[in-house]
Amino acid sequence: MTDNSRIATVQLGDKGPETGVQGLGCMGMSFAYGPSDAKESRATLERALELGVTLYDTADAYGAGENELFLSPFFRAHRDEVVVATKFALSIPPGEPTRRVIRNDAPYIRQAVEASLKRLDVETIDLYYMHRRDVNVPIEDTVAVMAELVREGKVKHLGLSEVTAAELRAAHAVHPIAAVQSEWSLFSRDIEAQVVPAARELGVALVPYSPLGRGFLAGSFGSADKDLTEGDFRRQQPRFTGENAAANAALLAPIRKLADAHGVSLGQIALAWVQQQAKVHGLPVVPIPGTRRPSRVEENTAATRIELTAEELGLLEPIAGQVAGDRYADMTFTSAGRE
Ligand SMILES: NC(=O)c1ccc[n+]([C@@H]2O[C@H](COP(=O)([O-])OP(=O)(O)OC[C@H]3O[C@@H](n4cnc5c(N)ncnc54)[C@H](OP(=O)(O)O)[C@@H]3O)[C@@H](O)[C@H]2O)c1
Predict the structure, then answer these.
(1) For residues 134 and 103, is the Cβ–Cβ distance under 8 A?
(2) Which residues belong to any copy of the NADP-dependent oxidoreductase domain (predicted)?
(3) The predicted structure's pLDDT at residue 15
(4) Is CB count within 10 Å lower at the N or C end of the chain?
(5) Hey, how many other C-beta atoms are within 10 angstroms of the C-beta on 169?
(6) Which residues are catalytic?
């Protein structure tokens, strides 16, 4: 029997919007993870909404605007029910898929927001994130420009992705930050040292991206070189290739054990763990697993109702410390790389 239960809701930070406790990552529908079926992706968006998912995550960098364009009919059809989250700061020069250009300066932000509003076909972006930090621009200056966008009605709430605790504090002093979006999963826990405590103290929510370890924790692939198509972004990530991938696959054993005990999937245990970090750390946590399949949205949202005991959490505790290989080839691209 299909479970049509809607997920619970939570406020995204002290001053942020209310959203479902799990969002939907839409990146893979247009970018990074190989070919997609547009019809199935659209069905995924609709199924997510039926199940209470309201936070939809995109960025101008996902397919150079393609992902925002793809989502705009869905957002238009459900404007009052969805929280539209997009990002600026990152671009990939045409023909150079492994290069990233990062900009946080005022003229760049001004043109980026106008372009996103146009592609999304909305009057206001509900949550506008700085996608990556350009260390050549003081973060206070960047957030001051983002705050002007709020005053002008182009943006409702502000977010930051992959910032350090110090960057978050400096930004929050200029304008309230609703959410930090950073990688957080059983394989990637570096933000727990400084970023998460700072977010809790400031009343900022955490939006964990890649909560399924880009699919690896759900067992959707074992080795990026062998299982994924040419051009798939995960083939550039050290932990998913060669000997690292084989070593990391062995780390799934305790997750599998708990999945068997609960009669659920590997991915559901991985998501339940992320979801439960809200209680562990005492702040709102809204993971945004990415999928292009309605059945997986059903599976992923059902994970919000799984409770892990302290003993079960303990069994999963050693995993992250044993992962072989970094999460990005260039770690300066992340908050941990700058801490
Ligand atoms: N701020 C940033 O820098 C940043 C970086 C990366 C991602 N993001 C955002 O975070 C979102 C989520 O991250 P992500 O997509 O990188 O990683 P993820 O959510 O950890 O994993 C997505 C992968 O897992 C697969 N998957 C999803 N549900 C599954 C299930 N129940 N069973 C088996 N496989 C499953 C998906 O395949 P199918 O699609 O084929 O179902 C996809 O390949 C993105 O969509 C994007 O919006 C942000």
Answers:
(1) yes
(2) 23-317
(3) 87
(4) N
(5) 17
(6) 62
